[in-house]
Amino acid sequence: MKLGNFSVSLNVKDINASKSFYENLGFSVFGGDIKQHWLIMKNENAIIGLFQGMFDKNMLTFNPGWDQNANKLDSFTDIRDLQRQLKDKGVRIETEADENTSGPASFIVIDPDGNPILVDQHV
User: Fold this and answer.
1) CA dihedral 81, 6, 57, 110 (to 10 degrees)
2) How far from chain centre, in Å, is Cα 84?
3) Which run of H or E residues covers position 18?
4) What's the rounded mean pLDDT across residues 59-82?
5) What confidence tens digit (pLDDT) does each residue in 87-118 have?
6) φ and ψ of 105, to 5 deg
7) What's the pLDDT at 36?
8) CATH of the domain at 105
9) Burial bucket for residue 86 (CB in 10 Å: 0-12, 13-18, 19+)
10) What pLDDT is attached to residue 83?
């Protein structure tokens, strides 16, 4: 199963403080909008998302259709196909993508320890 680009989405209390902290670790802003309280930061191949007030918990994030530079891949498994594969394996989908659509969509699964995993297709 190919889930696409991987990042960690962090629920932060103060986006400016978190941005400064991660800049000290060598991360730089790669995308997002600090005025909207979200940033994507990158350090080589490591990618983190900082989200203030958008999520309850930190979560793992996968982006089908994107490489590590957010470039569209020529070939990838559509999110609805990934969702069907997981359902066929008995994985409970917490929040489902509408299987009657195409293009951007997302779903969330929860691992056995309660960690949310967001699969978020932008293309």
Assistant:
1) 40
2) 19
3) helix 15-24
4) 96
5) 999 999 999 999 999 999 999 999 999 999 99
6) -170, 170
7) 98
8) 3.10.180.10
9) middle
10) 98
Confidence bin at 80 (pLDDT 50/70/90): very high
Helix (H, G, I), strand (E, B) or coil at 107: strand
* pLDDT, position 67: 94
- Using alpha carbons, select from 88, 123, 117 the residue that is nearest to residue 105: 123
Number of structural domains (the chain) is 1
Domain of residue 17 covers: 5-121
Tokens (6 digits) for 122: 């932008």
How many other β-carbons are positioned within 10 Å of the β-carbon of residue 35? Answer: 7
Structure tokens at 94: 């917490």
Structure tokens belonging to residue 9: 């989405």
Tokens 């802003």 locate to 29
The SS3 of residue 42 is strand
Mean per-residue pLDDT of the chain:
96
3-class DSSP state of 122: coil
